Amino acid sequence: MENTMIVGMGEALWDVLPEGKKIGGAPANFAYHMSQFGFDSRVVSAVGEDKLGNELFQNFDDKQLHYLIEKVPYPTGTVQVELDDEGVPCYEIKENVAWDNIPFTPLLEKLARNTRAVCFGSLAQRSIVSRQTINRFLDIMPNGEGQYKIFDINLRQGFYDKDIISNSLQKCNILKINDEELITVSRLFGYPGIDLEEKCWILLAKYNLKMLILTCGVNGSYVFVPGEISFVSTPQIEVADTVGAGDSFTAAFCSSILNGKSVRQAHEFAVEVSAYVCTQNGAMPELPQLLKDKLR
Q: Which of 38, 70, 257, 275 would you call most buried, defined as having the most Cβ atoms within 10 angstroms of its Cβ?
């Protein structure tokens, strides 16, 4: 598996939606969609020694999604999800759960040394145990051309601070952020200017990023690379819910780049995939074969 693995690292949990519970967690969503595009992906997380943990394993097995998930003496994570009239979710995330306590193991060290791309966020870093594990993984993972450390910032409730964000920005080489998160980060860091594009250029340069992805909901999305910017408008669709749409965007974009597509091609494909996911309920719908085949 030398330097070929794709990893989604952090929270794996149950989203408790109005119609029932569905598997969730941004890293798990990312890894699942990467697997749909033919990559050997892994979810790295932790679950409890409980019924919900066993059901999570069964769900991943049914989806043929591989994982490196430890059982720990904490409850499996759950999130209460309420949807507004537009299908946009509001989250109530339970604390002191299994994914707050992801252990660093010899198996995880071996995986890190053989990882080509990893996606991580801020949420699983709210606790010291998982934060240290994520940071050790990032430090061990190879650097260089074709290696991607994607910080999909995912600010949730109050589970972040300036130090966590700053450290993650220093360790990543791709940042994915939405317009509301960009305003929050700009306030935290005191970045000047009111123009969103200007703030993106500042972050790209300050942290020497390969790319910065900015999503703006119905107002489209941008990809910034040094000296270049791509904008794609958001297609008009009938939204079921937007849960997991951003994670499918990240996975489709990453898959495209790893398959040698241009930034523009990757961007357009990511928009197409995430638009489809918005038409489906839950974060992990199976993609149509037509979409899966586009990268082959």
A: 257
